[in-house]
Amino acid sequence: MRHATFALGRGFRTAFFVDMAQKRAFNEGKRHFKKSKKQKTAESDGSNEQVLLADVRRMLKDVKSEDSSEEKQLPEQWSEVELEISELSSTGDGLAQKDGQIYVVPYAAPGDTIRVKVVKHFLDQSYTLTDHLSVAKPSQHRTESPKCRYFAQCSGCQFQHLPYTFQLAHKRGIVEKAYRNFSNLPASAVPEVGETIGSPLQFGYRTKLTPHFDAPPGARRDKRHGNKVQWDGVPPIGFMKKGTRKTMDIEECPIGTEAVQGGLKSERARVHRDIDQYQRGATLLLRENTERITKDNGKSDVEPANDNVILEDRGQHVHRKTCITDPKATSTEYIDDFRFDNPAGAFFQNNNSILPLVTQYIRDNILGPRPSTTDGEEPAPSKIKNMIDAYSGSGFFTITLSQMFKQSIGIDIAEQSIASATKNAELNNLPKDSTRFIAADANALFSAVDPAKFPPLETAVVIDPPRKGCDKNFIRQLLSFGPERVCYVSCNVHTQARDVGWLVQGVDREDGSMLDGLYEIESLRGFDFFPQTSHVEGVAILRKKSSQKDEGKDRGSSASGRNADADAESKQDVKQDVKQDGNSAEAEQST
């Protein structure tokens, strides 16, 4: 092909290579729309593509073409057109309709008229991906001036041009659409979604960033031949450019905390100084660390703040914040008065400012409503005495909620997480006889729980799985155990909706029969863990259906047998689910 191309002259050669370059650019830029065979067979994986398609299909139902029999006349690839944005999708992109085709436009606001470049038509799905070029006419919602100079280029934030009240309302809609599109529940089974709880900090909240830089061209070849990698200057250090595989050079990130931004500045300087020592590209860790210093007579003996040391006055204490760059080092974080020590490279929530609001909300709701009295007496105590924290990780929910329960147990399949959780319980002076952690096989998670000490009728279960949600094996185990109440915390409300649908309506066994659902949804609410992005954390509170409560007594006495049945049904190995934080700011686009 190459020889034939050169034989046809310079004009054809130019057109050929421009076309190939454009194809490469598209394939690189939209690689996240390619799906593996495993993804294609997934029932509801909650991926960006699946969520976007649900919004596109719903919008197409409202489109009434003048003559649907006519073939669409779509603009050519790479051409420029103006589009009026109708709404925002759950992925954070704007959606516009033109001639029966839906156009996906990044960095948009409803009511905008935006000039875009056409990137790719998906004819079978009737939608088109575009690149944002300019705002021809801003909408009334576009009221904010972005604080980041890389906004609309970096793949991290989508909403810096929108007021925060609008962001919170939009995220409430994301939760509503998730249950409408993925739960398979009738509308009557889904309660009204509560207003989204906002983050106390809308910028400067993120306690962890992981910028990266790439190896120079030919680095693999040099390494294979035993040659030293040759760097032609310092490569860009930062995050992915929207829609491409190119790394943007990012000098500052306003969603990071002050300590993290100081660490970014220092690490960039170090890489510039030591670039010749690297034999490949690298991902840098920037993790905030907090030292709590008690004031003596209202004063503290702490060195003055600087670029690498941030001081925060917390009343009786001073928080001395620094940035850790070694993944194996220990980072310390305080949530209210709870202390958590974890490996700096391990998973922990990245917005500390909102975590007290989340834990308080769960405290207020996990026990359920208490019967009211008419004579002014105190309501009867809740019958929920025990808590099981599945997917417990380093023990965040077990530890912060343990004081409400007689017995609390955290279960995880990762032994390293159990070791961290056990250490954190000791740091917070929790008694070992009432708060403990165990590592359990994923195929028999609840078999590790003694039903005599954790009767299902007196037990609440908290689950906080990875983005992909729970698998059917876990749902079967949970239904077989049958706790009285369930609190489901999720970083992906779409897989949460799917799983809650199974808990309410039932799930199929491996033999094809159905395991009945036990629960009804008591409340749904979103929490804005990552302002300026399309991500929303979901908290669902489930209670056992009234018709199941009497049967629950028999269920509790035979919980061990039911667990054994559930284990026998799940013969396949279940690989360990590990919550991954993702790649810095751009991870929040997909998280």
TrEMBL record:
Residues annotated as domain TRAM: 79-120
GO molecular function, one term: tRNA (uracil(54)-C5)-methyltransferase activity, S-adenosyl methionine-dependent
GO biological process, one term: tRNA processing
Positions contributing to S-adenosyl-L-methionine binding: 349, 391, 412, 464
Keywords from the named record: Methyltransferase, S-adenosyl-L-methionine, Transferase
Chain intervals with Basic and acidic residues compositional bias: 547-556, 564-580
InterPro entries given in the database record: MeTrfase_TrmA_AS, MeTrfase_TrmA_CS, NA-bd_OB-fold, SAM-dependent_MTases_sf, TRAM_dom, tRNA_(uracil-5-)_MeTrfase, U5_MeTrfase_fam
Region (Disordered): 29-48, 212-238, 542-591
UniProt biased composition (Polar residues): 581-591
Keyword NAD: no
Residues annotated as catalytic: 491
Annotated Pfam families: TRAM, tRNA_U5-meth_tr
SUPFAM superfamilies referenced in this protein's UniProt entry, alphabetically: Nucleic acid-binding proteins, S-adenosyl-L-methionine-dependent methyltransferases
Family as reported in the entry's similarity comment: Belongs to the class I-like SAM-binding methyltransferase superfamily. RNA M5U methyltransferase family.
Listed PANTHER family: RNA M5U METHYLTRANSFERASE, TRNA (URACIL(54)-C(5))-METHYLTRANSFERASE
Protein name, per record: TRAM domain-containing protein
Lineage per the UniProt record: Eukaryota, Fungi, Dikarya, Ascomycota, Pezizomycotina
